[in-house]
Amino acid sequence: MNDATEAARRALQQEVNAKLSPREEMEAEHGQVWDTSELQRDFSVTGFMAPFVGVTRKSDGAKGSLAFQHSPRLYFGFSPA
To answer: Which one of 44, 63, 68, 71 is most buried, counting C-beta atoms within 10 A?
Structure first.
């Protein structure tokens, strides 16, 4: 399968993971941040293409995406579809 977004996603993934930030810094930069259990509480994951996950927000059914950093695994930047 040919993925036209792969090169851009890999570059972004390297950029995000080059400076792994603690939660407090992530929240200051991105607003609301979710760890894995909070993600599972608030969203259903519909797809995965690092550094993004496709999600459906449980509270209102809004579809969108979140970005994530690897370690600590934190999700951020909900973007509605």
So the answer is: 68
